[in-house]
Amino acid sequence: xxxxxIVEDDKDTNEAVCDYLQExxxxxxxxxxxxxxxxxxxxxxxxxxVLDIMLPKIxxxxxxxxxxxxxxxxxxxxxxxxxxYTQIASFDGLADDYITKPFSLVILGKRIEALLRRSCRKEDxxxxxxxxxxVNFSAYSAQDSRGVIEITxxxxxxxxxxxxxxxxxxxxxQILDAVWGESSYVIDRLVDTYVKNLRKKLSLDCIKTIKGVxxxxxxxx
Length: 221
Description:
The chain is α/β, with parallel strands linked by helices.
């Protein structure tokens, strides 16, 4: 079904994850440290990465940052850490999901399936044009007739989610769960701040406020 890179330094855990995922139809490639993970990611067409944070040689967060400099392959962070800082650092590094040890292999498999489905949908919205504005979500860049626009990765993640669901009313809770993750401890008013920034930076008049509910991105020009 998909080629998955499993990065986990505990051999028993790595083998158990690989064996289960192979049983449900995936092809797996395993790495036991951060350096090996980066090398294997560069050598193979990886469709999703299961990535431990605490790794020998190079940490999982550094591996995540290295991957994000190349493309937007889905990454599911796998770790025994449960502190809020580590979770926030993972999502700030654009991890797609986060699961803590001990975990159910079945639940891990279901989360991987969900991420793969989401990844397929995102491929259809890699570039978005609105008037003179051109946003490349894969390259995390934006420009218009004025030139390149400075914009953060999280702002682009929010915009991409709205573009993928244009024409639909999105609640603040839906946006938070999709962009920041269901386990993220952020208030819903954070969405208002990010929408305000998008409107200002990109001169967008297509993001409409739905009073008491959330936002809707109307069809582009």
